[in-house]
Design a protein that fits this description.
Largest interface: A-B, 24 and 25 residues
Low-confidence stretches of chain B: none
Structural class of chain A: mainly beta
Order of helices and strands of chain A: EEEEEEEEEEE
Number of strands of chain B: 9
Mean pLDDT of chain A: 97
Oligomer: heterodimer
Radius of gyration of chain A: 13 Å
Distance between the termini of chain B: 36 Å
Order of helices and strands of chain B: EEEEEEEEE
Strand content of chain A: over 45%
């Protein structure tokens, strides 16, 4: 069964850091680009970041560029999101999503995890 | 940045047809993907590349894209189709993925 399981979400104070993880199973992880998508409470979907199959291309939304770092470990079939200088507006459910293809462009996200919750509050 | 505009809500009677629009400048030149998100669940891809249907998605779901509007059509709407629907494109000028604001489909 193709599956993505996120972890690492927590309540954190503004300005602090947090690291999210996404464990993949049931498919050849190193053949696909991966993404982080977030959803603030009661709001819509927002693309956060994407990383190509070999980490050769990594993209970020303007709202997180310079504060968040996306990486992957193909040997461990895992995706990561390092979040620094967190702000209250980063509060959201963070989804890990599998890309249809190897590169970070154009294609759809065909598998999603259930998400992990990040709350930024003092 | 590229903006996708969706109506906040669409209401439809069971068995009828729902059309959900997604507006964007020359969106017809871009591949559009659609996602269904039922309450409390993760999004699910229902249409890819304008009108492709992933395995397991009923034929009742179809898509089109031309000019400045892409459309997701749900024929023979069922109660289980109640959900939020999002369109998505790739904005090559910014190297960003963009989602529409979402449309809540209510089955009367």
């Amino acid at each position: 069964e193709v599956q993505l399981v996120e972890s690492g979400g927590n309540l954190v104070q503004p300005g602090r850091s947090l690291r999210l993880s996404c464990a993949a199973s049931g498919f050849n992880f190193d053949n696909y680009a991966m993404h982080w998508v977030r959803q603030a409470p009661g709001k819509g979907l927002e693309w956060v970041s994407g990383i190509s199959w070999n980490s050769g291309k990594i993209g970020y939304a303007d709202a997180v560029k310079g504060r968040f770092i996306t990486s992957r470990d193909n040997a461990k079939k895992s995706l990561y999101l390092e979040m620094h200088s967190l702000r209250p507006e980063d509060t959201a459910l963070y989804y890990c999503a599998k890309d249809w293809a190897m590169t970070v462009e154009v294609d759809a996200f065909d598998v999603w995890g259930q998400g992990t919750t990040v709350t930024v509050s003092s | 940045s590229y903006v996708l505009t969706q109506p906040p809500s669409v209401s439809v009677a069971p068995g009828k047809t729902a059309a959900i629009t997604c507006g964007g400048h020359n969106i017809g030149r871009k591949p559009v993907h659609w996602y269904q998100q039922r309450p409390g669940q993760a999004p699910v891809l229902v249409i890819y590349y304008d009108n492709g249907r992933p395995t397991g998605i009923p034929e009742r779901f179809s898509g089109s894209n031309s000019g400045n509007t892409a459309t997701l059509t749900i024929s023979g709407v069922e109660a289980g189709d109640e959900a939020d629907y999002y369109c998505q494109v790739w904005d090559g000028s910014t190297d960003h993925f963009v989602f529409g604001s979402g449309t809540k489909v209510s089955v009367l």
